[in-house]
Amino acid sequence: MTLFFYIIIGLITFVAFLHAWAKKEYNFSRTVVINRPKAEVYAFIRQLKKQPLWMPWFLNDPGVVLKFKGEDGKVGASAYWKGSNNVEGIEKIVKVKEGKVFETQLLFIKPYKSLSLCYMAVKEVEPNRTKMVWGVKGVHKFPASVLMLFYGMDRALGKDFETGLYNLKIHLERK
């Protein structure tokens, strides 16, 4: 019984140490160059109703339920989703810098509560070429802080962001 108690205390101490040592803040992004004018790319990405056309999570879940509120593309507009694989959340537009930056607050309700800030920024590379950055930043809470020591945001989201940006590029360049 005493050995078991010491093992449990040791594990709790180790996990607490990992949490204290772990980097809590994250800022993860991916970039793509789209062969379309900056104004056209920005006008498309700022619309929450267009996200199901290119974001992989929506494309991979045909049973997702989406509900929109407010004037799309404007501060205060929001999208609610409930996926068939036990995911649920709300995305709300919190900042719009016309033609430059678009930010949303991303609240996951299920499978676990999480709050992040998503951002999309566009910059003209050439008259018909636009560099777009898609990112997410926030703070890991326990136990995510410990899990991300071993898993990492790049491993968790990298492939999805790359797929989404590829989908967006293909969609916009077909026009």
Automatic annotation (TrEMBL):
Matching Pfam families: Polyketide_cyc2
Highest taxon, organism lineage: Bacteria
Signal peptide extent: none
Record field: transmembrane: none
Protein name as catalogued: Polyketide cyclase / dehydrase and lipid transport
